[in-house]
């Protein structure tokens, strides 16, 4: 029986988390830095996850280790000797998080890439001083739809529509991931795997930097955008 063999670039290692639960998968890294993934892939939901991987090359391997390109009857190479491991051992991933007041934490490498899609801003990161000035003068009707969470560094994350016209970083939202406008995960399937692998104790957003680092912001960290709440926050961070 022939076995399927997929080659994936190292930069796409995080995408393997989406198939980490599939029984029987094994992985190894070759001398040229490529990740090899082998197994008998089903045609159901797990098969869809496999086909969504950013694969560089797709082979079938026979009992003699000969590699056949997908759909081709002639072998083109022989499977190299590799240190195969069960995928769960090869990729022991539980992505760490950091609460908003505590700063950012390094995780497995998350790649970002420019996106040509036009998306509506869902959130805004700005300075607490800018937010205070706006909140002191804005009509209550503009504040009512907004909520905010402040960090120890003097930054504030604002969500709601319409967002205030303040300088800062606008973000869009996908599956509770907040990404800078103009960027997307590379590959985009990372959005789903992060949702699967970062089950927080409380409902939360994952707030991403341009370099792929991120922090967790619990829904409970947000306050209604009342003037009194903004003033109290400024005093707490004074």
Automatic annotation (TrEMBL):
InterPro entries: bpX2 (IPR045552)
Source species, domain of life: Bacteria
Annotated ranges, domain MoxR-vWA-beta-propeller ternary system: 7-232
Protein name: MoxR-vWA-beta-propeller ternary system domain-containing protein
Species per Swiss-Prot/TrEMBL record: Mucilaginibacter limnophilus
């Amino acid at each position: 029986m022939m076995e399927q063999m997929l080659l994936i670039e190292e930069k796409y290692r995080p995408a393997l988390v989406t198939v980490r639960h599939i029984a029987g998968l094994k992985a190894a890294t070759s001398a040229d830095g490529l990740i090899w993934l082998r197994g008998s892939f089903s045609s159901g939901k797990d098969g869809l996850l496999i086909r969504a991987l950013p694969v560089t090359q797709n082979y079938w391997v026979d009992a003699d280790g000969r590699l056949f390109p997908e759909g081709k009857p002639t072998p083109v190479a022989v499977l190299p000797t590799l240190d195969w491991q069960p995928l769960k051992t090869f990729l022991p991933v539980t992505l760490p998080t950091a609460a908003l007041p505590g700063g950012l934490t390094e995780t497995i490498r998350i790649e970002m890439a420019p996106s040509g899609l036009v998306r509506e801003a869902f959130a805004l990161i700005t300075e607490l001083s800018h937010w205070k000035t706006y909140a002191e003068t804005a009509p209550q009707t503009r504040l009512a739809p907004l909520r905010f969470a402040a960090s120890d560094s003097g930054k504030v994350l604002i969500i709601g529509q319409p967002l205030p016209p303040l300088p800062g970083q606008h973000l869009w939202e996908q599956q509770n991931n907040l990404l800078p406008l103009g960027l997307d995960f590379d590959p985009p399937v990372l959005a789903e795997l992060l949702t699967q692998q970062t089950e927080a104790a409380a409902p939360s957003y994952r707030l991403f930097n341009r370099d792929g680092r991120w922090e967790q912001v619990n829904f409970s960290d947000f306050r209604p955008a009342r003037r009194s709440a903004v003033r109290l926050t400024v005093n707490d961070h004074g």
